[in-house]
């Protein structure tokens, strides 16, 4: 099925984006990324070496930019200034790479997005030539503001980062999806493959996750499960589910030709 995901003018076959933190080592990271079939991988610039620490192992040795689209992110940033500075460093390290994931957190306990600082950082980065994919609250008004500013993808949380609680407010996600003209990706809160399926069935264009895979008992097997969950959800969305009917019995097989008819 030819059904590409298009972000910032580039086409991708996989609708599953994965993070690269929290794994046992770089080899397990690579194994999980391959099992997920991911083409876009996120890299926390403040936590992962991609060249800023000379002499230390670099993630780029196992996940080279020639094979994957790297998505530098601002995990661990709590102000617009921190986020902008971090992504400018990433652009230097990656030879002018412009596609980035912006997240500005408001609280270290729950990692909920700080929307005023997120809006401020997004405006600066877009003006500076970045293609900004933005982590945000599931507020349709804030999501629309970010899209109108020029963000190339909107990434509302399904539930709190790392919680594994799944999609707690599908109605808000539907409101964001219905108004958006750029891709909408669920970011944060996915715990298992069925959560990913539900996100795609709702109409989300893709899902981004890290903890749900890295913290699984078998991360590589879970990565494969997430791949199939995303594919199933997308196909179900495109197929269109049957209408829900309360107390409206209808035979599931034809009645013509039955004995006595």
Characterise this structure.
The chain is α/β, with parallel strands linked by helices and 261 residues long. 36% of the residues lie in helices and 16% in strands. It contains 8 helices and 10 strands. Strands 5-4-3-10-9 form a 5-stranded parallel β-sheet. Strands 6-7-8 form a 3-stranded parallel β-sheet, covered by helices on one side. Strand 7 (131-136), helix 4 (140-149) and strand 8 (153-156) form a beta-alpha-beta unit. Helix 3 (115-127) packs parallel to helix 4. It is globular, with a radius of gyration of 20 Å. The protein starts with a strand and ends in a 22-residue tail after the last helix. The relative contact order is 0.14. The mean pLDDT is 91.
Percent range for β-strand residues: 15-25%
- Secondary structure tally, helices: 8
Please write the string of helix (H) and strand (E) elements: EEEHEEHEHEHEHEHEHH
Structural class: alpha/beta
Shape: globular
The value of Rg in angstroms is 20 Å
The share of residues in helices is 25-40%
What is the end-to-end distance? 42 Å
Q: What strand order characterises the main sheet?
A: 5-4-3-10-9
Uncertain stretches: none
Annotation, overall tally of beta strands: 10
Main sheet specs: 5 strands, parallel
Instruction: Return the average pLDDT rounded to an integer.
Output: 91
In short:
With 261 residues, this protein is an alpha/beta fold.
